[in-house]
Hints:
Elements: H1 3-21, H2 25-31, H3 36-43, H4 52-62, H5 66-70, H6 78-86, H7 91-106, E1 117-121, E2 131-132, E3 138-142, H8 148-151, E4 156-159, E5 174-178, E6 187-192, E7 197-204, E8 209-213, E9 221-223, H9 228-231, E10 234-243
Parallel strand pairs: 1-4
Antiparallel strand pairs: 1-3, 2-7, 4-5, 5-10, 6-7, 6-10, 7-8, 8-9
Amino acid sequence: MNKLELIEQFAYNLERLRNKLGYSQDQMSKCLDVSSSTYRRIINHETTKVDLYFITKLYELTHQFAFQFCNPNYKEDRRLRIVSTITELDDTALKDIENYVNFRKAITFNKKGETKIVPFYHPVGELSDNMIFNSFSYTQLDISSCPDSIKWQVDCALEILNNHFHPTYHLNDILLIAQRPPRDGDIGLFIEKETRKMFIRVFKMESPRKLIPVSDSGRIIEVDEKDIEDMNKWIKFGVVVSKMY
């Protein structure tokens, strides 16, 4: 985007926010601690200069960052998409994320050496055919002894806490997980958003998509890839790379 396009997008989103808040332009300018004439110059594209104080006041008002107002394609950038999502969370979720970030910073991870430690998740496992997943119920797992061909694919590990996945997986098995989208035939971990139930299923790239049980029991789950609402019910958490031996 050039400078003119950027300021036009900024002004458009600023006015859209004002309307959403139900403010007049004078009320909005007062919230941002600028004169009404300055506010109108910004939204009428009569200036390409917006100072840091204005941006700071805008964040205090909205808890949104400048890039969210300026770049309509920011969600294509993974880092910006994650940052923007964080602004929508409550204090409890933010504390969980802060703890997780501090944990990740403390992890020893040196690809040139042999040490690799990953988050090790412990879901609630007494349920038939699935487990209840809590992404912040975790410890650490040293997977340095794994072959390099496996070790550097792994993002986290998951403990199996029941025998409902027999004969493929058993109680206390440790699955090594790569957090990438599943390919046809992969064993994936799929979380139903509403219930937080995690299903371990073979992913079949059919229409509709099929999630096939890895055990002798369990239901086949169908997801309509053409229905956004149906797709949004699920989180594709990752795929199983290997078991920990």
